[in-house]
Amino acid sequence: MALRELSSLEKYLGLKKPNKYSTQGDKKVPVLQNNNGPPLVGLVTIACHLVKEAKRPELLGDSTESRAVVQQWLEYRVTNLNGCTKDDIKTILKDLNIYLQDKAYLAKNQFTLADILMYYGIQPLIVDLAIQEKEQYVNVTSRVGSSEQLSVSRRVRDQSEAPISPTTTTVDAAGQREGSGLTSCHTDPASQGQNPGP
Amino acid sequence: MKLFVSEGNPHCLKVLAALGVTGVQCDVQYVNHEETVVPFLSRPALPALLLPSGLHLFSSNAICQYLFEVNGQESSELCYQWLEWEATDLQPALLEALHMAVLQGKGSEVSKVLQGPLNYLDQSLSKGNTPYLTGEAVSVADVVLWAALYPVLSESSLTLGECKSVKSWFDRVAAMHSCQSAAQKVLQGKGLQGTKSYMQRQPAPRSSHCRDTQPCNSNPAECEEGERAVSEEEMEAAVLTWSKDLNAGPLAADRQHPILPQEGKRNILVTSALPYVNNVPHLGNIIGCVLSADVFSRYGRLRGWNLLFVCGTDEYGTATENKAREEGLTPQQICDKYHAVHSSIYKWFQIDFDFFGRTTTEKQTEIAQNIFWRLHEHGFLVEDTVEQLRCENCQRFLADRFVEGTCPHCSYPEARGDQCDKCGRLINAVELREPQCKVCRRTPVIRSSKHLFLDLPKLENQLEQWLEKSTSTGDWTANAKQITRSWLRDGLKPRCITRDLQWGTPVPHPDFKEKVFYVWFDAPIGYLSITANYTDKWEKWWKNPQQVELYNFMAKDNVPFHSVVFPCSLLGAQDNYTLVGHLVATEYLNYEDTKFSKSRGVGVFGDMAKDTGIPSDVWRFYLLYVRPEGQDSAFSWADMALKNNSELLNNLGNFINRAGMFVTKFFEGCVPAMELQQEDKKLLAVVGWELQQYIQLMDKVKIRDALKHILNISRHGNQYIQVNEPWKKIKGGDAERQRAGTVTGVSVNIACLLSVMLFPYMPTVSHTIRDQLNAPQSCINTMLQGSGSFVCTLRAGHRIGTVSPLFQKLEADQIEALKKRFGGQQTTAQSAASAQPAAVPAPAAPAAEVATVNGVDPEKAKQLAQAVAEQGDKVRALKAQKAEKAVITAEVAKLLNLKKQLAAAEGKSPEPAPQKSKKK
């Protein structure tokens, strides 16, 4: 699964030459044979490497603070999301939902690698959720939608210089939202960088 | 920026170590494991860092990375990789290992769980062939992995196979002072067991090896807080004790000097580190040695031990010579002057020495030279030629602290001649790069001269055998054991004991007649010579290890000289000396989050305390309440006022005063008859339990912890009065009046018990209470005997004296004024460096972590802060004068630039904090 994620990431980053990966251990930890040095081991390590290779350092955060926040969620992804139980999922979604209440992305206003890998981790977990459950975690599900668009859509990638602010207008103070489900998020460049206000 | 941590949590060890290593300035707050700090997480997550933007970091690894990056060290790919491995591979194994070792007592099986990850680490280290995980320098990966492994690897009882590379890497990282002190803070020197309270709150790990996870029910730590259940048996026992007779034994006689060891008694010799004579002691010095030793001595005398408490001023050395030159006096005159200053300060603080002497005496010369000759005869002194720095301008050799230069190990620019404050390594002065004479700032030259060395390596075996015994049978504080262990681990080296100076004990050897003893050879001998000046029979104390127990009190920077160097002198002298059995070392006391500084006028010094108008007892109480026991603490004016008003006035004083006033007002000053009911019996049991805790802790010299139990008793008492309302019942019928009498009688007896327990802490208040209650002298020797017994000492009919309030409120404006007067707020670049208690010459102050790691530079920050302040004034002045806009704009730009530099020098992120969202 980690390997699929890495190749999706490569595509999103527009890397021309796909890398060859192997895995090690019972947990199938991805390994990248690196021409310039020792092999790189681990999903987060390799993902960060790819981002740098693609010369997109802003995806790792553009300030000391946001770089730390990005690293934190990347770690969260590989420690809390991997191998979690049904109950864990509920807690994780609940926490994320609160966290994202006043943020467009995990690192506030900026779309980063953390959003991409969290999306890859969460998406398979929530496709199983019933619609009502999705409603509970509106802040998460709507953003997962936005990540999906960013990560798979060629069109979005071409516009990546003007990143999409997907959902900031979809949630009002009362938690009501326009649209529903994964595909209904609209983009609204004007609201870029703002948090949903009351 | 604020960091939240909890004790015993290994992840908090990571971040505190990273904070120390990077030197980033940040508030640290200790909270409970269960405290919710991160608002959006369902489960408590610690450590947590509140960022300037208002976001929280709740992953320890991300916090560490952040701290390193703030400090200018960005993580490499290899770093990322190690951190990811730590989080995904090592942590699950560690959690399981800790669970087994700490909660299930299956330490022997730990190696099975950890072998895989440790082998991987070992192979990587030996393959990489670099001292640290990612290269030649310490990176965030080293700190994180070291801290994660610390609980298991520092525990020698766990055998972890043959991972040589891991071991040497681990020791290398552990050698950094910041790491050691973080470990001490988080695990309290309890090693693996220090994590217990944390582990008990972790979900049981999903075991990868054995699935027989047993539920762990016994949880003694849990019930420590909150109501303690009292059993019927405890109540019975408490009532029995209550009705016991007062100790009919001989009254505690006044001390008969000279006090000498007695057959069949517990003979205790207490020393406090000798304060150095050239300075006025500050509060940190006072709590670190003399006050702590005084409390223990007073307590010991109450317990009926045969106890001698000696101290004195340490007077030899270059610092005295210098001070004499400064003040235009002879060294002897300086010593006389400051000895008197010290004496009067300790008198004001009611330090009850049996003898307060000094080191510049005949006896000192006699005993020091005798020990020297014995060491010489037994072949424990070696001769060597030493290259020394000499300042031709000042015409003298620059010993130790009189030369400064760049550290040869870490390039810290202000390393001293004997030690680097930054990396903590000991330095030979000639190794310093770019040395400078501290007095005239010229470059000294290297000269060689012959010196004598104490051959510590030759004594190492003997020392270790003795240490093994002393530390296992005596009460050594955790920091004392740890510092000693680290000295032994690094291997002992011969130590020079002679110096090219004039003001000292002369070396008697004809080949060295121009020289004197090095203060650290000389000063501890002061304990012996001071005792010898007290009594001719001093050898009954000092050459009598069978009968005498020796307690040394000091701040932690003095530990190695009392646990390694001095014992080696005495062991090598082979004269049946009494060696230290209990080494009690405090951490450092800071002043309002900065350090005491004589030159900057920051802090309260011994001679000023009495000018504050606050009674000596209140000073003692507060210093003991914040005694740096187990971790650094800080003196704070606001906190002092708070503790005075809440604990002394509203809790303790209020209770004792109410109890006495009820007797006076409702019962004409005579203690009423008491008919104990269930509720009273329960209170007796609870109070008796607190008393036992107090005694257990005091016996172990846990002075601060014991004080909490005194305050608990008066809290119980207040509650008891509040619930029973004797002032209402006294107006009721016979039964109710009877009840009011019982409650009053029990309360006033608790007050009497409190006066005894308070005696070591607040001697004057203790006396005042007993005077007010007219309590018999015998109550003192009765209640603190054995494991403690709460006896009814004021029986029905006993007439008490005149009752009056014990404490006064400290008003906010009064405290504000004091705070201003003593400069607590003038700090611009707050330095986390600690007050170095200057007791005894303090050659080693390893804890002074002046952070100048990459960009973080308190010195520069201070200058910049000054510049910012000046520029700010300029801008305000221009605006006030309504100057031209362009001019103002230019000056504002300058100001902003300065502020940015300041932020960088303080280790803060230079980016302006992003706008906080409104919805929070």
Instruction: Determine the N-to-C terminus distance of chain A.
Output: 40 Å
Poorly predicted spans of chain B: 207-226, 824-856, 909-920
Order of helices and strands of chain A: HEEEHHHHHHH
Number of extended strands of chain B: 20
Percent of residues in β-strands of chain B:
5-15%
Strand order of the largest sheet of chain A: 1-2-3
Structural class given helices, strands, pairing of chain B? alpha/beta
Number of distinct helices of chain A: 8
- Write down the overall mean pLDDT of chain B: 85
| Residue runs with pLDDT of under 50 for 5 or more positions of chain A | 148-198
Radius of gyration of chain B, in angstroms, nearest whole number: 30 Å
Describe the strand arrangement of the main beta sheet of chain B, using strand numbers: 7-6-5-17-18
**Quaternary status:** heterodimer
Largest interface: A-B, 39 and 35 residues
The global form of chain A is globular
Family (chain B): Belongs to the class-I aminoacyl-tRNA synthetase family.
Keywords (chain B): Aminoacyl-tRNA synthetase, ATP-binding, Cytoplasm, Ligase, Nucleotide-binding, Protein biosynthesis, RNA-binding
GO biological process, one term (chain B): methionyl-tRNA aminoacylation
Protein name (chain B): Methionine--tRNA ligase, cytoplasmic
